C-alpha cells in the first residue's frame, strides 16, 4: 500500500512539475512569503509599521530623493534581535526632510524641505545633540523608490510590510476552516442520520448568510484588530470544506477498505483519520488553495471598509482605501500598486489550485 501511495504521490508531483504556471505560481508564493517574513530587514523604513511620517514630502512620485536629517533621541530603545525582525525597530529619532544645511558656532543650521518651489523654514539645533558633535552621519540622501503616500511615508516599505497581513491571513483562515470543516464534515458524513441532518442545518444557515456580512458581524463582535480579522475570515470559510469532506466521506465510507477496518474492530476516530481522510486529500488541497485566494480578497475588502487591520498597521486593502481618490488626481499608482499586489497573489493561489487539481486527477 505504501509503495502504491508513494508512486501515486510521485506521479502527481511529476505532473505538477510539468505545469509551467503552477511551478511559477509556487515560486512566486514562496518569494512573497519570504518577503513578508523578512519585511523589516528588506524595507528601507524599518520602523514599526513603516510609520515615519513627513507631511512636507507627501504624495511624491516614484524615485523621489531628498536629504534627511536624523536627530538622535536620548530615549532607551533596547530590543531583541527577533523583536526587531518581526515587529520593526522602535525608532525614537526625529527625521526631518531638508534642502540645505550649514554649521555655525556649534549650531547646525538647516532649511526644512518645502514642496512647489517654496522656501522652507530655517531652523538651528545644537551640535551637542549628536554623539561627539559628529552630525555628518545623521544627514543622508534618501530615495523613495515607490514614492511616498499621502502622509509622507515610504510607499515601498508600506507595500512590503503590508504583504504580511495579506499573506498570513490565508494560512490562518485556511487552518481554522480546515479544523472546523474537516471535523464537522467527517462527523456528518460518517455517522449520517440525525447528526448529519443537524450539521447540515448549521451548514445551510451559515451558507445562506452573505460572506462579507457574516465577517463584518463577527469582526464587530470580536472587535477591530489584526487577529480578530484572521479569526473572523476563518470562521466563515469552514462551510465549503465541511460540504466537500461530507460528500467525499459518504462516497467512500462503504468501500472495502473501510469495511475491513470496521471488521478488525478499529475505532471510528482511527478509521476516519487513518483510512478515510488520507484518501480524500486531493479535493481538500484544491479547495484550500481556493480559500487562500478568497481569504486575501475578503481581508482586502474589510480593510477597504475600515474594519480590517487598523492604522498605522500597513495593509494592501487599507492602502487602496487611503489613495483611491488619487486615481483622478493624477497619481493613480498610489492605488494601483497595492491593487496589483493583491491581484498577483490571488492569481498565484488560483493557478496553484488549478495545477494541483490537474496533478491529482487520476483520469488524466
TrEMBL record:
Q: How does it sit in the membrane?
A: Multi-pass membrane protein
ABC transmembrane type-1 domain span = 163-353
Source organism, top-level taxon:
Bacteria
SUPFAM superfamilies documented for this protein = MetI-like
Subcellular localization(s) per the UniProt record: Cell membrane
User: Its GO CC terms?
Assistant: plasma membrane
Any Pfam family matching the protein: BPD_transp_1
CDD domains (alphabetical) = TM_PBP2
The answer to whether UniProt assigns keyword Magnesium to this entry is no
Residues crossing the lipid bilayer are 20-43, 165-191, 198-220, 226-245, 276-298, 333-353
Q: Which Gene3D superfamilies match?
A: MetI-like (1.10.3720.10)
Give GO BP annotations, semicolon-separated.
transmembrane transport
Q: Which UniProt keywords apply?
A: Cell membrane, Membrane, Transmembrane, Transmembrane helix, Transport
What family is reported? Belongs to the binding-protein-dependent transport system permease family.
Any idea what this protein is called? Answer: Peptide/nickel transport system permease protein
Q: Which organism is it from?
A: Ichthyenterobacterium magnum
Query: Which taxonomic lineage does the organism of this UniProt entry have?
Result: Bacteria, Pseudomonadati, Bacteroidota, Flavobacteriia, Flavobacteriales
